[in-house]
Amino acid sequence: MFENLTDKLQGAFGRLGRRGTLTEKDLDEALREIRMALLEADVNYKVAKDFIKTVRARALTDAVLRSTTPTQLVINIVNEELVTLLGGESPKLHRSSQPPTVIMLVGLQGAGKTTTASKLAVRLRRGGDRPLLIAADVYRPAAIEQLKQLGKQLDIAVYEQGAESPPREIVANGLKHASKIGAPIVIVDTAGRLHIDEVMMEEIRELERTFSPSEVLLVADAMSGQDAVSAAQAFHEAVNITGVILTKMDGDARGGAALSIRAVTGAPIKFLGTGEKADALEPFHPDRLASRILGQGDMASLVEKAKEEFGDEDAKKLKQRMADGSFGLDDFIEQFKKVQNMGSISQLLGMIPGMGNIKQQLNVDELDDDFFSKVEAIISSMTPDERRKPDILNGSRRRRIASGSGTTIQDVNQLLNQFKEARKMMKAMAGGRMDQLLVGARR
């Protein structure tokens, strides 16, 4: 979402760095570029103006201008101010001292509120909770059915009474049901609207007054830009919004909502929706997003994703197979699938520092669509014995596999070469010889 902004910021810093020592004029030219980049990214005008003013005040000092590394100091200041703009610290969900904790989701229609409710439930369950979803959107009957289906698919309990009962009654009975089944936390999916109206706001206010939720989270579509900010402002004025969940952060919009909402409303962003999968909901970390925006990667999130996907027990078994040389193509494709579950190639590359240029050189969307499916087709066309012992693949076998998978012999050869390199690296890692491998690679 922030690729264009990242490119423009890096361009501005690159031109600034070529000047050596900095003057006030140099700094103002760079800040003008940064301000235009923020506005083009759909950041709120006043937010962008105040941001540049703060950065300028901090950067226009002798300590920065006369430094031997003035550009790096300016980048550090921009990074720190981005973190501040985004909220500073990673906000946590508030919990009730007397369970169940009530989390109420509100927002406009089409922001992804119902699917977000199920994603939040999945994330809470991963943390050890047993959440209950309450279907209180009585104005869109499809929302109730959608939540029921999601609950069934994800094995999460859903309480619903249909569209005939008033939301207040549904939530009250849902809380009784939560106590009955021992659910420590409930997520209430309320009705959305195509526009903000007083009837809807009064209904939300009534639910808030009656049930005193620990969290009232606004679900906003990040791709709607300043419309998301306006909606957040209106909801925050009507009810006590305790936080925001920004959905569709994996889209190709300009992303200014993420940089504006906290400054405009004071409500912290608590989660980011990063895809369609059930687990594509990330806790919001201002420092990590600022790092991504500046093109510096986000290794912390990448490591967390890897830990979630590759459990300790699986890692031990994999390490043993790598160490004893029994790592085969079945293991290889299994690891590929786990990498796929972590996110798209584009998302993963964006988390690795310095990989921006590679993303630009490669058609990563094409890689996502074609590369994994081609690898899987080739391996699926092999016999079990060939997958266990790929060294037996002679020319005739490779021709058969290429024909059976709808690929070319070159594709098969390329995959086998990649597998050999991966196995060599993994064996070195399993044997604790990664330092030797890196030395050899540098040579």
Question: Can you give a write-up of this model?
Answer:
Helix 5 packs across helix 12 and helix 14 packs across helix 21. The C terminus is likely disordered. It contains 22 helices and 8 strands. The protein has 3 domains: 83 residues, SRP54, nucleotide-binding domain (Four Helix Bundle (Hemerythrin (Met), subunit A), Up-down Bundle), CATH 1.20.120.140; 196 residues, 3-Layer(aba) Sandwich (Rossmann fold), CATH 3.40.50.300; 141 residues, 434 Repressor (Amino-terminal Domain). The radius of gyration is 26 Å and the shape is flat. 60% of the residues lie in helices and 9% in strands. An 8-stranded mixed beta sheet has the order 3-2-4-1-5-6-7-8, with helices on both faces. The longest helix has 22 residues. Strand 6, helix 11 and strand 7 form a beta-alpha-beta unit. The protein starts with a helix and ends with a helix. The protein is α/β, with parallel strands linked by helices and 443 residues long.
How large, in whole angstroms, is the Cα Rg?
26 Å
**Low-confidence sequence ranges:** 433-443
CATH H-level homologous superfamily name of the largest domain: P-loop containing nucleotide triphosphate hydrolases
Number of strands: 8
Structural class: alpha/beta
The run of helices and strands is HHHHHEHEHEHEHEHEHEEHHHHHHHHHHH
Number of helices: 22
What spatial order of strands do you see in the largest sheet? 3-2-4-1-5-6-7-8
Which CATH architecture of the largest domain is right?
3-Layer(aba) Sandwich
Please give the domain count: 3
Mean pLDDT: 81
Terminal CA distance reads 37 Å
Most strands sheet: 8 strands, mixed
What portion of residues is helical? Answer: 55-70%
Backbone shape: flat
CATH topology of the largest domain: Rossmann fold
